[in-house]
TrEMBL record:
Name used for this protein in its record: Adenine DNA glycosylase
GO molecular function term, any single one: 8-oxo-7,8-dihydroguanine DNA N-glycosylase activity
Family to which the UniProt record says this protein belongs: Belongs to the Nth/MutY family.
Cofactor note: Binds 1 [4Fe-4S] cluster.
Gene Ontology process terms (BP): base-excision repair; mismatch repair
SMART domains, A to Z: ENDO3c (SM00478), FES (SM00525)
Superkingdom of origin organism: Bacteria
Domain HhH-GPD: 52-201
Cofactor: [4Fe-4S] cluster
First-tier enzyme category under EC: hydrolase
Described function: Adenine glycosylase active on G-A mispairs. MutY also corrects error-prone DNA synthesis past GO lesions which are due to the oxidatively damaged form of guanine: 7,8-dihydro-8-oxoguanine (8-oxo-dGTP).
Length: 359
């Protein structure tokens, strides 16, 4: 697919959109949410994919996108669903506030806007869960509005084109300015997608295929042989380690206790194996004080590790047996073991279940 040499562009001024669009017309990626050439994009699909793609790879999103579309083919269908069902279908994608905002946004568009997404950046910014990036991306891709769309791929391309020494994230405003200057009035939606595709398939983090790049004649980093060193990044602060405990309790008929997390906060509204708070000074010797029920708790060998954006987590897992008559405490309920996979369990909870099953 990417085996031809890019057309040579003879402008001395800088990278022109035209060269990139010529390349895009030949090499664009086929993505499940993307309209085919000549097809009108569906704003619902574009919006859904952009929300899913935040902090998540194209490969991971693909099956989720297809499943969501099969179940909720329109924004009105999604608006009529329960938030709980959306959270269940979202489980595993991470950053769960996105799923709750997805539902809130679908309801807003369906109930207040007659099922039509606004077609401007400003209009889109008014919707729940839509920030500056998503508004620009949806406006450009779904409505062909001229907007500077900058994702991680585009940041890489631009910092290399300009050999930009300012590290990320400080370089973001300058990158947005550059992209704005590059974005054409004609076909801005295709331009935005072309920049993303260029970053994803040619201007890759390691070993970019500069020989195939339509911007080769204009790339400062390539000229200096430093392309792989961009973008510059400010050193990351080490993430703190928090600790906690999770409590696995099963009835003789095989039902297990789960709990709904509070709606606000980390993993809000998701289902959990009842857990303690997670803190840096967690007192492991008194972990069972956090158990949802009094029982003969035993600590299972091993520990579950999980990385969140701002901290690392290590969870010890305790197991116990309940009686058939044991009542579920407030916010908790019993779930059949076989039904656990269909619950809105975030990845860290799935890891806890896997540790229990491995013991
Ligand atoms: S020439 Fe190479 S480094 Fe420069 S934009 Fe193209 S692929 Fe990226």
């Amino acid at each position: 697919m990417l085996n031809s040499v890019a057309p040579e562009v003879k402008s001395p001024e800088g990278p022109h959109a035209e060269a990139l669009l010529v390349w895009y017309d030949r090499h664009r990626r086929r993505l499940p949410w993307r309209a085919l050439p000549g097809e009108k994009p569906d704003p619902y699909r574009v919006w859904l994919s952009e929300i899913m793609l935040q902090q998540t790879t194209v490969k991971t999103v693909g099956p989720y996108f297809q499943a969501f579309l099969a179940r909720w083919p329109t924004v009105d269908a999604m608006a009529e669903s329960d938030e709980e069902d959306i959270l269940k279908a979202w489980a595993g994608l991470g950053y769960y506030s996105r799923a709750r905002n997805l539902h809130a946004c679908a309801r807003f568009v369906s109930e207040r806007l007659g099922g039509r997404f606004p077609d401007t950046v400003e209009g889109l910014r008014q919707l729940p869960g839509i920030g500056a990036y998503t508004a620009a991306a949806v406006a450009a891709i779904a409505f062909d509005r001229r907007a500077a769309v900058v994702d991680g791929n585009v940041e890489r391309v631009v910092t290399r084109l300009e050999a930009l020494e300012t590290p990320l994230p400080q370089a973001k405003p300058r990158i947005a300015e550059i992209v704005d200057g590059m974005t054409p009035a004609d076909r801005p939606g295709d331009f935005a997608q072309a920049m993303m595709d260029l970053g994803a398939t040619i201007c890759t983090p390691k070993r970019p295929a500069c020989g195939l790049c339509p911007y080769l004649p204009f790339c400062r980093a390539r000229r200096e042989g430093t392309q792989e060193t961009f973008p510059r990044k400010a050193p990351k602060a080490k993430r703190p380690l928090r600790r906690g405990a999770a409590f696995w309790i099963v009835r003789p008929d095989g039902w297990v206790l789960v709990r709904k997390r509070p709606d606000k906060g980390l993993l809000g509204g998701m289902t959990e194996i009842p857990s303690s708070v997670w803190s840096e000074d967690f007192d492991s010797s008194a972990a069972v004080n956090h158990a949802p029920l009094k029982a003969k708790w035993r600590k299972l060998p091993g520990e579950v590790g999980h990385g969140f954006t701002h901290f690392e987590l290590a969870v010890s897992v305790y197991a116990a047996d309940a009686l058939l008559s044991t009542k579920a405490p407030p916010d908790c309920r019993w779930v059949r073991l076989d039904d656990l996979d269909g619950e809105a369990l975030p990845t860290v909870m799935r890891k806890i279940v896997a540790l229990v099953r491995g013991n």
